[in-house]
Amino acid sequence: MPDVSIANSLDYLPDLLQGLLWTLGISAAVMVLSLIGALFVALARLSPWKPVRGIALSYVEIIRCTPALVQLYYIFYVLPLFGLALPALVAGVVAFTLIYSAFISEVYRAALMAVPPTQMEAARALGMNYWQAMFKVILPQAARTATPPTVNYLLSLIKDTSLLSVITIQELMFSGLILASRTFEYFTILTLVAIIYFVVCFPLTILARRLERRFDNELGYVNTGSVGLSGPGLLKRAWGAVK
Fold first, then answer.
1. Any idea what the CATH number is for the domain that residue 180 is in?
2. Is residue 164 part of a domain?
3. Is residue 37's pLDDT more than 90?
4. C-beta separation of 173 from 148 below 8 A
5. Domain ranges, residue 224
6. Number of domains in the chain
7. How far is CA 55 from its chain centroid?
8. Is position 124 within any domain?
9. Angstrom distance (rounded) from CA 222 to CA 234
């Protein structure tokens, strides 16, 4: 059995917590940028112009059907061949923003399609144009539906930032690997890394679950047929709109 010392473990915490700050900072920046990018992609997917829909769909499918690690390598190692060399931190933020904009855009699109069409009709009847109705009536309702799965994507993002260690960004995972390579305490350090990820991510799972239940209760999807206690009814309603 590995020799685990609590005193030694505490000695590693400052470096690991420094890496955690990088992880959380990068995650926050990517999530803010992705929420903005995802909105534009979702609106493009619902555009009345077929070329716009086609471009947005191509982007989403390319991102969804290729590994995140390949996309990260491509931006960091391939783009410099075309004269666009990005610092590691910028490349990481750009890569994950592109990735999560694509995924969250599908959540937004599902949430927008889950809003009853009568809402748009009522807004237009009150004299609003399309964009006024979209931003003042449709989007606020869709945002409530999209919130729980968006929190789940934030959870995934925090874990996925560990991939940034391959381009030497000193987030939590990379900090742990550096310590382990210096001390050969792989069991102790990687266990600490796993515990830190769990402590950060577990509250987000609880938050997402509570948001799902809250919105289900408000919209009356609990204990109503197939959409009830068997799963988050609000999310089912949204994804059902795009199937």
1. 1.10.3720.10
2. yes
3. yes
4. no
5. 6-240
6. 1
7. 21
8. yes
9. 9
What integer pLDDT is reported at residue 70 of this predicted model?
94
| Residue range 52-76: mean pLDDT, rounded | 94
- pTM higher than the cut 0.85: no
Residue 224's DSSP bridge partners are 227
Are residues 192 and 9 in contact, defined by beta-carbon separation less than 8 angstroms?
yes
**Residue 149 lies inside a defined structural domain of this protein:** yes
Judge whether 207 and 199 are in contact, CB under 8 Å: no
Contact 105, 45 (CB under 8 A): yes
- Sequence-separated (6 or more) residues with CB below 8 Å from residue 197: 158, 159, 172
Helix (H), strand (E) counts: the chain: 10, 0
Distance CA 99, CA 74 (A): 13
- Mention every residue, 6+ apart, whose C-beta is less than 8 A from residue 6: none
Average confidence score pLDDT of the chain: 83
The DSSP code sequence of 9-46 is: HHHHHHHHHHHHHHHHHHHHHHHHHHHHHHHHHHHHHT
φ/ψ of 227, rounded to 5, equals -105, 90
Residues 6+ apart with CB under 8 A from 215: 144, 145, 147, 148, 234
Q: Evaluate whether residue 1 is within a structural domain.
A: no
Sign of CA dihedral 101, 104, 105, 106: positive
